[in-house]
């Protein structure tokens, strides 16, 4: 799966009336492909060693809201190229993250 990192350890993430908040600040999400109108998720503190992740197709994505915080050691890479939707085709910006991805464990 490819997911977007929304919250790092120590962050407080919440969805209130369809708006994403990280540490009580509204997050501008031009990359989100569909509205989260009427969505609400209670505030959650991102624990040490974990990440809060979400897919860009918010109403249909299976992510932290469904299966909980993601252990950082399960992150195996970053997306470098966006191909869909076509009007966003190109290299993906990478904000600086403050952890080192590890190798995912196989089944």
Describe this structure in words.
The structure is a single chain. This protein is mainly β and 107 residues long. It has a domain at 4-72: Umud Fragment, subunit A, CATH 2.10.109.10. The protein has one helix at residues 64-67, and strands at residues 4-7, 12-16, 19-22, 25-26, 41-45, 50-54, 70-71, 81-82, 90-91. The strands form three sheets. It has a four-stranded antiparallel beta sheet, with no helix packed on it. The protein has a three-stranded antiparallel beta sheet with strand order 1-6-7. The longest helix is centred in the middle third of the chain and has 4 residues, at 64-67. It starts with a strand and ends in a 16-residue tail after the last strand.
Keywords:
107 residues; globular; 4-stranded antiparallel beta sheet; 9 strands; disordered C terminus; Umud Fragment, subunit A; mainly beta
What is the total tally of β strands?
9
Question: Which residues form runs of ≥5 with pLDDT under 50?
Answer: 98-107
Task: Output the structural class.
Answer: mainly beta
CATH class of the domain at 4-72: Mainly Beta
Count, helices? 1
What's the CATH topology name of the domain at 4-72? Umud Fragment, subunit A
Q: Which CATH architecture of the domain at 4-72 is right?
A: Ribbon
Choose one word for the global shape. globular
The CATH superfamily of the domain at 4-72 is Umud Fragment, subunit A
Amount of helix? under 10%
Order of helices and strands: EEEEEEHEEE
- Radius of gyration of CA atoms, rounded to a whole number: 14 Å
Oligomer: single chain
N-C termini distance: 15 Å
Q: Tell me, rounded to a whole number, the average pLDDT.
A: 82
| Largest β sheet strand count, sense and barrel closure | 4 strands, antiparallel
Biggest sheet, strands in spatial order?
4-3-2-5
Strand fraction: 25-35%
